[in-house]
Write a structure and sequence with these properties.
The complex is a heterodimer. By secondary structure, chain A is of the alpha/beta class. Chain A has 26 helices and 29 strands. Chain A is 30% helix and 16% strand. In chain A, α5 packs parallel to α18 and α9 crosses α13. Chain A starts with 10 loop residues before the first helix and ends with a strand. Chain B has a single domain, classed as Alpha-Beta Plaits (2-Layer Sandwich). Classes of the chains: A alpha/beta, B alpha+beta.
């Protein structure tokens, strides 16, 4: 989007500026204020620490350079097979995350109306005591129904640590990003081919990427492996997207599809390969369950390319060609799974149809197809999961056909707001999660948060959700903590570990220490409540005595050991693993033998013969051990057994209105990076994409402020007229338009999609439909 | 003594601009849209939805071309711009008087004013920040997700860059001006 204007034209201004000020805005000024605890002998020396990025979900390995206690630079760490040898712009901007002046610095307790933004500084002990008092009161009033307290967490290495507290606490309610993100695609592929898998983009010959935008929404190693091979260099790419993205710019064919109609496209592809008999017969015969029924279903419903053309806007001839080309290159052909896939009501069925179509080519568990790979066993860390007799089951279990362990966030929130909860929901513990920004209809989220008696948020930045909390506990950033070692399974599996680079700044702490302190404070008082209401526990005390009974309910136990000790223990059975994780951040068996530098840019992690391309021995992890075409068991839950197009999926866009879609680009993750100075330097704000011809008719020019309004809310944003989007579609990047006044750079910057997206959910998992909203726009 | 150059497998560029970020962090380039040593040039796609020309939207990562025959060096009245021992075109900030002749003379628009030193600044292949500390790559090369860049010694026939430009076809930018650039865009 950057305009190609010569700098020379600004020379005059530039020189004038230099003379006028030359005020340094370099991070060093901020860094200097950091409390750096440098040992005298280390002054002036540069230390290199292996860490793991947390600017998005990918966990790329990095090396942090530290001088005089200050992190000066982040560089790629080449040892991790998943992230190869790179750091994207967000990875580089971790420097601005640790040294963000707006960071949460010490515990805060609300000191005014909810949402007033008024807080008073507290000591950690005061904060813990406040929480303990409130929690005890709530659980006493609710007769130890632990499920009246909900827990939610953003994705991350330490989510597990927070979850240990939740497990010990005994609530039925855990909520996370799954129902706002990838629940449908993970289950769609898992129930069909036995796993979400890893698309082997290093070896695939033909890839259909629909809605996935790997040149901008970077996923490792997919993005790095693939774009070295596109544009006539080995891999053919078909991009199906309502927008012409950077990924489309790398494609051999781009199909600008109508929003929400991908399922019709995939069904038509399936129709062609069945009708023309060009699918992989051998694979289907041996590894498909009930293909005959699916074949009949697709043919009888006449899912022809001509039928699909009317729905999708994609020409029938293009559909024929993609279907034929796909099978021509199969089994090295992939219909790419995608990740953030909560788009429309039919999403689960769409992912099922994709998985079946991909499998029709035989490209499953094979080099160049969708692989499942291997994991590396680590020693687990036992935590007790006490049973509380008074704890009731999830309230949102019936909001969709299959509600998993992380719930349906929107369903849960709406039940509470609408008073449909069978028992009160009184409190929320929130770790590093920003429902105000990540969930559609922020007006409802705000009302939900205000309705709760106690909201405790652990985070690094004063997000919109933080501002609506009662107690704020400042976590340190990822560069200031060691997190649990974790395995990344796949074609080239490895264990990785995030090592602490510098000491936590201000009064912030890693979440394991926060949990340790909190559990020490609340464990005993909460047990007193259980004693009062739990007859099972009363009986046990009578038999075994109080001390022995408390053992199981002791919340502090999960946090007794340090993270470093836990990690050491987890990999104890591998010689040299702990040392490697400390020094290199990475370990895998035979790493010392396998790891090789190939040239200045590339490394080899496993020799070709040792990569885990095929591991299933032709037995897939589905009920029948085969690819499942017909999941008849789902019908009794009201879910179609086979992917079926329905008239209701065709959402008409009224004249003068638009369908709204959202997404990402490479210089921004989500609301979590909205205040990042280095990233805002690359892309200062978000823009609303609108078709150029439509914009011109409406008198909207580049940079004009427009108001985007839906049934549930509105937001204001600058316009970017472009032909890269269709006539009836509007798009802008997610995560901007924060309200929190404490975010100096992000506050009020750009448009907020959470304000305008309607909060409907799909029927399978209660995942949110992010692309089903119709909006109106007007120039302001 | 070396003769440093850079080969760019530019078709792999996804316009993520990690190189810009890494360069600014490594070399302390100030924030601001006009402050940059390197950049990714982008052409806006041609055509009307849904008939967009895929070939029209391309990304061109760029920076100082480290010309063997650099116009910026020729016009500098104080010899602030000079070739170092490795053929890298550099600016001596002690000598720079900010006359900005070099900024106008550079056909690649690769120079800008650094508000910290109030002198002209530009890419120096991370000579002072990385090469001087024993690193063998530039920040932009190291960080690149799709490994667009290969930096190295053109005088060493065994270097990765020499091997690349011996084997692959390449183009250079504004070669006709006689600048003898040392950036090679691999085709």
């Amino acid at each position: 989007m950057k305009a190609e204007i010569s700098r020379r034209r600004f020379l005059q201004g530039s020189v004038a500026l230099s003379i006028a000020g030359g005020v340094s805005m370099s991070p060093s000024a901020i860094m200097a204020s950091a409390s750096a605890s440098t040992k005298p002998e280390d002054i002036g020396k540069t230390k290199k620490v292996a860490t793991l990025c947390e600017m998005c979900v990918n966990k790329c390995a990095a090396f942090a350079y530290v001088k005089n206690g200050i992190v000066t630079k982040l560089d790629p760490n080449p040892y991790f097979p998943k992230s190869r040898n790179m750091l994207c712009p967000r990875g580089n901007s971790g420097l601005a995350a640790i040294y963000d002046v707006d960071r949460l610095k010490y515990p805060l307790i609300r000191d005014g109306e909810k949402g007033s933004g008024k807080f008073k500084r507290a000591t950690w002990d005061e904060a813990y005591s406040y929480i303990s008092e409130k929690l005890t009161k709530i659980l006493d009033e609710e007769k130890d129904n632990r499920s009246t307290v909900a827990f939610c967490a953003g994705e991350g290495m330490a989510e597990h640590t927070f979850k240990n507290f939740y497990t010990g606490f005994g609530s039925a309610h855990f909520l996370n990003h799954a129902s706002l993100c990838l629940a449908t695609t993970v289950s769609g592929y898992s129930l069909t081919i036995g796993g979400y898998g890893q698309a082997d983009l290093e070896n695939a010959d033909y890839v259909v990427m629909a809605g996935a935008n790997r040149a901008e929404a970077i996923v490792t190693p997919d993005s790095m492996d693939f774009f070295k091979r596109t544009t006539g260099r080995g891999a053919k790419l078909v991009v199906v997207d309502p927008r012409f993205t950077n990924t489309a710019a790398k494609s051999d064919k781009w199909l600008g599809i109508n929003v929400g109609t991908d399922l019709a496209f995939v069904l038509a592809l399936t129709y062609v390969v069945i009708k023309e008999d060009i699918y992989n017969k051998e694979f289907v015969e041996n590894h498909f369950n009930d293909f005959a029924t699916y074949k009949k279903h697709v043919l009888q419903n006449e899912y022809t390319p001509e039928w699909a053309e009317k729905i999708t806007g994609i020409k029938a001839e293009d559909i024929y060609q993609v279907a034929r080309d796909f099978m021509h290159h199969a089994p090295q052909s992939i219909y790419y799974q995608g990740r953030r896939t909560t788009w429309s009501k039919n999403d689960f069925q769409l992912r099922r149809a994709q998985a079946i179509f991909s499998a029709l080519g035989g490209g499953i568990d094979i080099k160049g197809g969708i692989c499942f790979g291997k994991s590396i066993a680590m020693e687990g860390h036992e935590v007790s999961a006490p049973i509380y007799d008074q704890a009731k089951s999830r309230i949102d279990a019936k909001e969709a056909a299959v509600v998993g362990g992380s719930g349906t966030w929107v369903g849960f929130r709406n039940m509470v707001l609408e008073g449909r909860n069978p028992y009160p929901i009184r409190a929320l513990f929130n770790y590093k999660h920003n429902p105000m920004a990540n969930m559609p209809n922020s007006a409802k989220t705000e009302a939900f948060l205000k309705k709760l008696d106690l909201v405790v948020t652990i985070d690094t930045m004063p997000s919109d959700t933080v501002m609506l909390s009662d107690v704020i506990l400042p976590e340190c950033t990822y560069l200031e903590r060691t997190d649990p070692a974790k395995v990344y399974g796949g074609i080239e599996p490895a264990i990785v570990q995030r090592n602490k680079v510098v000491e936590p700044m201000y009064e912030s702490k890693p979440v394991i220490e926060i949990m340790r302190g909190l559990s020490k404070k609340v464990s005993k008082p909460l047990f007193e409540i259980t004693k009062k209401y739990d007859e099972e526990v009363q009986d046990t005390i009578e038999e075994d005595g109080e001390e022995a009974t408390y053992e199981e309910f002791d919340l502090t136990k999960a946090f007794e050991e340090s993270q470093e000790d836990l990690n050491h223990h987890a990999v104890a059975k591998y010689a040299g693993a702990a040392e490697s994780l400390h020094a290199k951040g990475v370990f895998y068996p035979n790493m010392d033998k396998y790891f090789k530098k190939l040239n200045v840019n590339e490394y080899e992690y496993y020799p070709e013969s040792k990569k885990y391309y095929s591991v299933m021995n032709k037995k897939f992890k589905t009920p029948s051990g085969k690819i499942e075409c017909n999941l008849s068991s789902l019908t009794k839950r009201g879910i179609d057994a086979m992917p079926t197009w329905k008239k209701e999926y065709e959402i008409a866009v009224p004249d003068g209105q638009f369908r709204f879609i959202t997404g990402r680009h490479a210089q921004f993750t989500q609301s979590g990076s909205s205040n990042n100075k280095m990233l805002l330097d690359l892309v200062p704000t978000n823009y609303m994409w609108i078709n150029k011809r439509v914009a011109s008719r409406m008198g909207i020019k580049f940079g004009d402020e427009v108001e985007v309004a839906s049934k549930v809310g509105k937001t204001t944003i600058k316009a970017y007229p472009t032909e890269k989007i269709g006539l009836d579609t509007i798009f802008f990047i997610h995560g901007f338009g924060n309200k929190s006044q404490e975010l100096t750079l992000a506050s009020g910057n750009g448009g907020n999609d959470a304000n305008i997206i309607e909060d409907s959910i799909e029927p399978m998992h209660g995942a949110t439909c992010l692309h089903d909203t119709i909006v109106e726009i007007r120039k302001v | 003594m070396a003769r440093y150059g850079m080969a760019l497998d530019y078709k792999s560029c996804i316009n993520c601009r990690a190189c810009e970020s890494a360069c600014k962090a490594e070399n302390g380039v100030l924030p601001g849209r006009d402050n940059y040593r390197i950049w990714v040039g982008q052409k806006e796609a041609e055509g009307e939805f849904p008939n967009i020309s895929i070939a029209s939207m391309t990304y061109h990562p760029s920076q100082c071309q480290h010309c063997d025959n650099a116009p910026c060096q020729q016009v500098c009245p104080t010899n602030a711009t000079y070739y170092d021992d490795n053929g890298v075109v550099r600016v001596d900030i002690e000598k720079c008087i900010l006359c900005t002749y070099c900024i106008n003379a550079c056909p690649y628009d690769a120079r800008y004013v650094d508000d910290r030193t109030v002198t002209v600044d530009k890419c120096n292949f991370c000579s002072d920040t990385r090469l001087a500390n024993g690193e063998t790559t530039t920040a932009c090369q190291a960080t690149c997700p799709t490994k667009v860049r290969t930096f190295g010694d053109l005088d060493d026939p065994n270097s990765d860059i020499s091997q690349l430009i011996a084997k692959r076809e390449y183009k250079q930018v504004k070669e006709h001006l006689g600048t003898k650039p040392k950036l090679f865009y691999l085709l």
